[in-house]
Design goal:
Largest sheet: 7 strands, mixed
Number of strands: 13
Order of helices and strands: HEEEHEEEHEHEEHEHEHHEEHHHH
Helix content: 25-40%
Strand order of the largest sheet: 9-8-10-11-7-12-13
Number of domains: 2
Radius of gyration: 22 Å
Length: 354
């Protein structure tokens, strides 16, 4: 049965409220040939929670577009925007992305991260050696820290927690971030939203920001060789720089920098260390509830620097740091979590592979 038009605002409010109560990170409203599926991403896994008539689905998407002040008459182009939603005493920012499909407009809503994720480093449940590495970087006066992993692996949560820790433990710092998009507000950080395909790209913004007297820089993502070169130069010139990178592990991240034609001596001089992480669903009785990170940290030492100077491939880099006494690989961290009953082997295989 089609939902009356006047009930659509109430339906959207219920939809958003239920997603927050379910601790969903995203909502997908996806039109199909028959109807419209409402899906929620809970603990990293998409689950269909309901199906509504196609007309109702179109009305829900239209209501969200109105709330985000998007162009409801443009059905042929992707659109992105933000909307405000009150849950409890606070109004939260949600991100909305619209995409035309063969069956109509598809909507994806990113839910407010501050309601779902911890804000302090010590609350993240990171392995001790990883946490120690992050604390050591926070105390350093320069260098580049790379946090790597696939989309949805918790990189942004770790970055924001590290920024908060730096601000809370060291007063009087100039801290600037370049993000696409800005996902949550961090008091004490000058946050700048860049548009990789617009006028204000990462490269252009980073060149200008270096003349704004920053001491700590956060770069949302290194996507190309030009941005990587600027980031390395910033770290070499006395800045602390935190950035994210898409690579499978620390060896892959260092290898990609070499493939981007960053000189090995620049990497060995600028790079403080690399964190690689994933998120595993936390086991709770006979089901899953919440997630826990599995991560590894590699800090550059003299043997690893000597290896990098020879322009090695990823396996050679990996061999160089695997023998370090403080290094614990992600699979071992995951096995330890299974032994403690915090997750299970099936979940480890799903996320890390066999």
């Amino acid at each position: 049965m089609t939902t009356p038009t006047q009930d659509i605002p109430t339906l959207v409010t219920t939809l958003l409220t239920q997603a927050i109560q379910n601790r969903a990170s995203d909502i997908h409203i996806e039109p199909t040939a028959r109807d419209c599926e409402i899906r929620q991403r809970i603990d990293g896994v998409l689950t269909t929670v309901s199906a509504v008539p196609a007309e109702t689905g179109r009305a829900i998407v239209g209501r969200l577009m109105v709330m985000a002040q998007l162009l409801t008459y443009r059905l042929d182009v992707p659109q992105e925007g933000r909307l405000q939603f009150s849950y409890g005493p606070t109004a939260h920012d949600l991100r909305l992305a619209i995409m035309p499909t063969t069956h109509g407009l598809r909507a994806a809503v990113r839910m407010p991260a501050e309601l779902l994720q911890p804000g302090a480093l010590e609350e993240l449940d990171l392995p001790k050696n990883v946490l120690d590495g992050l604390y050591a970087f926070a105390k350093s006066d320069s260098g580049m820290l790379i946090i790597t992993g696939p989309a949805g692996s918790g990189k942004t949560t770790t970055v924001y927690a590290l920024l908060r820790h730096i601000i809370q433990t060291q007063s009087g710092l100039s801290v600037i971030s370049l993000e696409d998009p800005v996902e949550r507000d961090v008091p004490g950080v000058t946050q700048i939203e860049v548009k990789p395909f617009g006028e204000l790209t990462y490269e252009r913004a980073l060149r200008s920001i270096l003349r704004q007297d920053p001491q700590v820089l956060m770069l949302g993502e290194i996507r190309d060789a030009a941005t990587a070169a600027l980031a390395i130069q910033a770290a070499l010139s006395g800045h602390r720089l935190i950035c994210t990178f898409h690579a499978a592990d620390p060896a892959g991240a260092i290898s990609r920098l070499l493939e981007m034609h960053i000189e090995p001596y620049q990497i060995t001089s600028a790079l403080f260390g690399v964190v690689a992480q994933r998120l595993l669903r936390r086991k709770s009785a006979a089901t899953y509830k919440g997630r826990i990170p599995v991560a590894e940290f590699v800090r550059l030492d003299d043997p690893l620097r000597a290896t990098i100077l020879n322009h090695p491939d990823a396996p050679t880099i990996r061999t160089a740091y695997q023998s370090h006494p403080t290094y614990t690989p992600m699979p071992q961290v995951a096995r330890d979590l299974v032994e403690k009953g915090l997750t299970d082997a099936l979940e480890v295989t799903r996320v890390l592979g066999a």
